[in-house]
Amino acid sequence: MHTKSRDNWVAAAFVAPFVIAYLVLFLYPTVRMVILTFTDAPLIGAGKWIGFKNYQRLFNDKAYISAVWNTGYFVLLTVIPNTLLGLVFAMMVNRQKGYVQSFILAAFFLPYILPVSVVYRIWEWMMDYQFGIAQYALDAFYGERVAVFRNKVWAMPMMAFVTIWWTIGFNVLLFIAGLRNISQDMYDASALDGAKRWKQFRYITWPLIWPVTALVLTIQLILQLKIFDQIYLLTLGGNVNNTMVLVQYIYKQAFQLNKGGYGATVAFSLFAIIVVVSVLQYQALRARPR
Amino acid sequence: MRKLMTKALATAALLALTVGAQAKETVVWWDFLSGGDGVRMKSLIEEFNKTNPDIEIQATTLEWGVPFYTKVQTSAAVGEGPDVMTYHLSRLPLGVDSGVLREITADELKAAGIDGANYAPANWKAAQVDGKQYAVPFDIHSIVLFYNKDALKKADLLGEDGKPKGLDGIENFDAALKKLKDAGYDYGMSFQTAGDGGVWRVFYSLFNQQGGEFFKDGKFLDGDNVDKAAKAAGAMAKWVSDGVVPKQTDYNPSIALFTSGKAATLMNGVWEVPTMADLAKQGKLGFEWGAVQIPTLFDKPATWADSHAFAIPDRKGKEISPEKLKAVLTAIKWMNEHSISWANAGHIPAYVPVTQTEAFKTMEPNATYSTLAATAVFDPTSKLAGVASPVYEASANNITTVVNGDMDAQAGAEGLRDELQGLQD
């Protein structure tokens, strides 16, 4: 006999592995981290309870506020360009056929499979102020050499450029999958009605690809808010204040200055920022008519 | 069947015995020596493994600076990491404060036959915090001025003795660098103008040549020390803006500029001596080179110096076993006793008996620049100082920016002071 309570037990048994893993591996550490923000703990080990002192410090910490701005600037420079360029390249790749298509797709995707350490070496060498090959191009077109990763004006846009170069392949892939889902019939029918390329894009491709665009935008936003590796590596040993982003600031406080409590506070603030921004973005994207 | 079993068992037992007899104590070793001196260290380790069959050092070289020290700190905190590692004495107070280093007790040192009397008193003491020993010094190293003899000759800056002349005093030095540039070299001098290490070493030397005190009574750059810092940074910035020193140049390119003959001189650490020696030996340098103590540009001679030492990480919950500790200390002692080949890498051995040998006294170019030891200045003793410390980072943020012309010297010196004082309070 099937009773409702028995069903519930079976269901619970199936759900349990996930719930337990979620509680133990995610929720518990999160709660502990929030508790950490109220202490003066070092990186490893316990600390004294100091109430809201870390939070007071946070709002008066110029370096923190500049890290927030730097992160925002980086997000602005990467999220939308990376998404739109991904779509443009996907549409271009999609127009090709057979081997040509595979080859171009591979060319776009290749950087994505590189580890960040390789990406950083490639660009560090290319952009080296004395011997980098790209400096000759800069010299020719801009008129002088620029230490791009150490220059206040150039650093962030260059970081964004490297990031887009590195990660766009994945976006292209997602968009191609989306584009292939749009039936050719619609384009044929619209062509019969006299729709040109732009109209086809405006009224068929764009609305139908929108779910993928929204997905890519969301993934990008969260990813870029958490930016760390490239920026850390490319500015290693240099002027880090120009490009100090939030995760790097967490790293600095917790791992370099041994301030676990304050580092956790910065981390928690980043968590809050990501939640707020993601919710806002979700609302904004949903509000868009399909 | 039974016979077979017995045989198998006997073989296994025999095998176990032989393995037991050959059991080696492995010592996991981390260092950050990847330059010309790293090659010397690798051959030292190889020789140690050959001559000490019961100990095997398994060495890994990690990236110098922040990556090395961050890795050491996090791994020690979770009970991982090496059995022994190289450590800068400038960073010792910071290392002890963050609980990374294990004390080496007097008894342990005595049992291993390591005697503090064999080291310069100040050097030995620099390896202590609150009277406890945390490291064994290995060398003293500093910056020197490498020079291209052909270039100096062309610019009439080479004395009869084959050493540079007329470089003392900031005006003379500036003029000399211009002369070298006029003699057809891209730069009069090269040093690492991007990043933390290179700029800090030159800056700290020039600052101390004015008798400055970087850290005193809990205050950074107190009083007119900030002006001395500005003067030092300003002099460096002038070289860059005059085009006699390359702008924004990373560590390896800064050396390449010298070895390729584009820069006439190079202000860098003695650890690059083997780079020059090896290139010259292979006939790849294309000019005669030398190295001297850095000139006195201000009131008195002073040269930045630091010390490489061996330390044992305090691995939480996975402390080093007595047997392994013995092996580690044996290795440390052996390294110090054989540090003549480390002197070959440009360094001044910390182990005094080695420096008293004829072999060391006649070793070039060490013998030429070893005069600097008398006026060497070490990084301030503070939890914020040392390699890959907040002092290095603050210097990279402020002084490096000044040197590359993106900030006024006074503002940079004040920025340095405020950034460090902010961390101190």
Write the layout of secondary structure elements.
The complex is a heterodimer of chains A (290) and B (425).
Chain A: H1 4-36, H2 53-60, H3 62-95, H4 98-109, H5 116-126, H6 133-142, H7 155-180, H8 184-192, H9 197-225, H10 229-234, H11 246-256, H12 260-287
Helix pairs in contact in A: 3-7, 3-9, 4-7, 7-9, 9-12, 11-12
Chain B: H1 2-22, E1 25-31, H2 36-51, E2 55-61, H3 66-77, E3 84-88, H4 92-97, H5 106-112, H6 121-125, E4 128-129, E5 132-133, E6 135-137, E7 139-148, H7 149-154, H8 170-182, E8 187-190, H9 197-209, E9 215-216, E10 219-220, H10 225-241, H11 251-259, E11 263-269, H12 273-281, E12 289-293, E13 303-306, E14 308-311, H13 322-337, H14 340-343, E15 348-349, H15 352-355, H16 358-361, H17 366-369, E16 376-378, H18 390-403, H19 409-424
Parallel strand pairs in B: 1-2, 1-3, 8-11, 13-16
Antiparallel strand pairs in B: 3-14, 4-5, 6-14, 7-11, 7-12, 7-13, 7-15, 9-10
Fold and architecture overview:
The complex is a heterodimer of chains A (290) and B (425). Chain A is an all-alpha fold and 290 residues long. Chain A has a domain at 69-259: MetI-like fold. Chain A has twelve helices and no strands. Chain A has helices at residues 4-36, 53-60, 62-95, 98-109, 116-126, 133-142, 155-180, 184-192, 197-225, 229-234, 246-256, 260-287. Chain A starts with a helix and ends with a helix. Chain B is an alpha/beta fold and 425 residues long. Chain B is built from 19 helices and 16 strands. In chain B, strands 7, 8, 11, 12, 13, 15 and 16 form a seven-stranded mixed β-sheet that branches. In chain B, strand 1, helix 2 and strand 2 form a beta-alpha-beta unit. In chain B, helix 5 (106-112) crosses helix 13 (322-337) and helix 10 (225-241) crosses helix 19 (409-424). Chain B is globular and about 90 Å long. Chain B starts with a helix and ends with a helix. Chain A binds chain B through residues 42-44, 128-131, 147, 150-152, 236-241, 255-258, and chain B through 65-67, 70, 73-74, 77-78, 97-99, 194-197, 246-250, 253-254, 256-257, 316, 388, 390, 393, 396-397, 400-401, 404, 406, 423.
